[in-house]
Specification:
The chain has 121 residues and is an alpha+beta fold. It is 40% helix and 11% strand. This is Ubiquitin-like protease family profile domain-containing protein.
Length: 121
């Protein structure tokens, strides 16, 4: 599972390709983050006035919504999580990450690890 925090959108998105992952249970498990992250950012004065895209303001601590992003359900979730992190950090659409590409991605990662030049953001 991977999470993405939208600082401007003020939301938490989670990505999981594990077939057995129950979205509602995961939302319950992440509920404390929906309060902790905005409170922490507000405590450090991360935001200026008027930055919020939902109805929050600096005087009102609000809960960020938690959304499960619709991604293909796979049994090979470890490699998918690594690729999702790489793709999201470079703003490449997740649609480029398919099970057909996984053998190439695994081989590429193994070669990078052996050469000690694996991508480290």
């Amino acid at each position: 599972m991977m999470m993405q925090f939208g600082n401007v959108e003020t939301e938490i998105e989670f990505f999981t390709s594990l077939v057995k992952a129950d979205g509602e249970i995961l939302k319950e498990e992440l509920a404390l983050l929906s309060i902790t992250i905005p409170n922490l950012l507000n405590t450090f004065d991360f935001y200026e006035e008027g930055v919020y895209t939902n109805d929050c303001n600096r005087d009102w601590w609000c809960r960020w919504p938690i959304e499960r992003v619709d991604v293909p359900q796979q049994g090979d979730c470890g490699m998918f999580v690594l690729k999702y992190i790489e793709l999201l950090s470079t703003e490449i659409p997740l649609a480029t990450c398919t099970s057909q590409n996984m053998p190439f991605f695994r081989l590429k990662l193994a070669a990078e690890i052996l050469r000690r030049d694996a991508y480290m953001p």
